[in-house]
Structures are given as structure tokens and as C-alpha cells.
Automatic annotation (TrEMBL):
One protein family per Pfam: LysE
Transmembrane feature ranges: 6-25, 37-64, 70-88, 109-132, 144-166, 187-203
Keyword field: Cell membrane, Membrane, Transmembrane, Transmembrane helix
Locations listed in the record: Cell membrane
PANTHER family: ARGININE EXPORTER PROTEIN ARGO, HOMOSERINE_HOMOSERINE LACTONE EFFLUX PROTEIN
Record flagged with keyword Secreted: no
InterPro entries the UniProt entry points to: LeuE-type
Membrane topology according to the record: Multi-pass membrane protein
Gene: rhtB
Coiled-coil parts of chain: none
Family: Belongs to the Rht family.
Highest rank taxon of the organism: Bacteria
Record-given protein name: Homoserine/homoserine lactone efflux protein
């Protein structure tokens, strides 16, 4: 992979990361309630799922989702259901002031939640499957190229998701009124449900 090609891929990776999606929502909600360091654990979970998706694409299995309506629908509805469940949980969250002693969620739970949010989004895998091969030179060793691609995707996504999480945690310092807490619970709950609904009615990218 030449430097010019890598810069092109970096630009594409930035656009993908900045575009709001379930990963951004889970990063913001975790950062808002539990702070950046717990959100970072969730963000690392997102990257594990991204690496798994990239590995699947590298092995050529991503084509199955692109061509099989059954496989795509199964993962799509699983992901949509999970996002809607997260939204309902957030909507029904108790109104707890952000300066109160809030028990930290287990790091393992935050990590697993990040993995599940990204892994149950088949459109992300298909998008990676459509994008990545365009930047891979078949005449060159592919393992090294995929390592560069994986590092670029993950580092870009960690930085962007961290930005979302930090912004949310800074905003959280101003939310002490119970009415505001309830409003933000329902706002983010609505975002999760909306993301799940959009995923459920989506079709395979052409």
C-alpha cells in the first residue's frame, strides 16, 4: 500500500467514524453517565468487533452477508432487537443526579456491550467489505496491508468515539436537575430505539 493510497483510506476511515451511528450513541451514553475511562472500555469493545468484521471480510466470508438475504436478515434483526432493548433500558433508567454516587458498571460488561453493538450491525461489515478491497493491492503481500488497514480503522475510530465520549462527559457536569436527567435518558433511549428501527427496516447495501 503506497502512501497516497493510505491517505485515501485514512480519509474514508475518518468519514466512516465521524458519521453518527450506534457506536457513537453507546460511546456518548457511557461517557455521560460513567465518565470517559469506562467509555474507553466500551470503545475498545467496538474495536474488537471491528477487527472481527475485518477478519471475516479478509477471509472472504463477508460476501455471504452481501448475497444471502437470510444471513443478512438474521443478523440485522438480532442487532435491531439489541439496540431497541438498550433504548428501552435507557428510557427507563432511574433519575439519578450525575453528582450522586453512581455504581460503576463492570468493565467486562462495558467491553461486551461495545462488542455486541458493532458485531450485530451487518451493514458495517458489508460496508467494510465494499470499501477495504479497493485499497488492497493483490500483487503485494496481503497480511501486511490488512494490518495497516486494521490499525488505521481502529485508531481513527478510537479517537472519534473518544471525542464523542469526552463531549458527553463534559456535558454531563451540567446535568443535575432531575427533569434534565430524565430528558437525556429519554433522548438517548430514543436514539437507540431509532437506530434499531432503522436497522430493522434497512435493506442490503447495493
Amino acid at each position: 500500500m503506497t502512501l497516497t493510497v493510505w491517505f485515501g483510506f485514512l480519509l474514508a476511515a475518518i468519514v466512516i467514524a465521524v458519521t453518527p451511528g450506534p457506536g457513537a450513541v453507546i460511546s456518548m451514553t457511557t461517557g455521560l453517565r460513567h465518565g470517559y475511562w469506562t467509555a474507553l472500555v466500551t470503545i475498545l469493545g467496538l474495536q474488537v468487533a471491528l477487527l472481527i468484521q475485518l477478519l471475516i471480510v479478509a477471509l472472504g466470508l463477508g460476501a455471504l452477508l452481501a448475497t444471502s438475504e437470510v444471513a443478512f436478515s438474521a443478523i440485522k434483526f438480532l442487532g435491531a432487537g439489541y439496540l431497541i432493548w438498550l433504548g428501552i433500558q435507557k428510557w427507563r433508567s432511574p433519575v439519578v443526579p450525575l453528582d450522586a454516587d453512581v455504581p460503576a458498571i463492570p468493565r467486562k460488561g462495558a467491553f461486551l456491550q461495545g462488542i455486541l453493538v458493532n458485531l450485530t450491525n451487518p451493514k458495517a461489515m458489508i460496508f467494510i467489505g465494499a470499501l477495504v478491497p479497493q485499497f488492497v493491492d493483490p500483487a503485494q503481500p496481503q497480511a501486511a496491508q490488512y494490518l495497516v488497514i486494521a490499525a488505521t480503522l481502529c485508531l481513527t475510530d478510537v479517537l472519534v468515539m473518544s471525542g464523542y465520549a469526552v463531549a458527553a462527559s463534559r456535558l454531563g457536569r451540567w446535568l443535575h436537575d432531575p427533569r434534565s436527567i430524565r430528558a437525556q435518558n429519554r433522548f438517548f433511549g430514543g436514539l437507540f430505539v431509532s437506530a434499531g428501527a432503522l436497522l430493522a427496516i434497512s435493506s442490503r447495501p447495493s
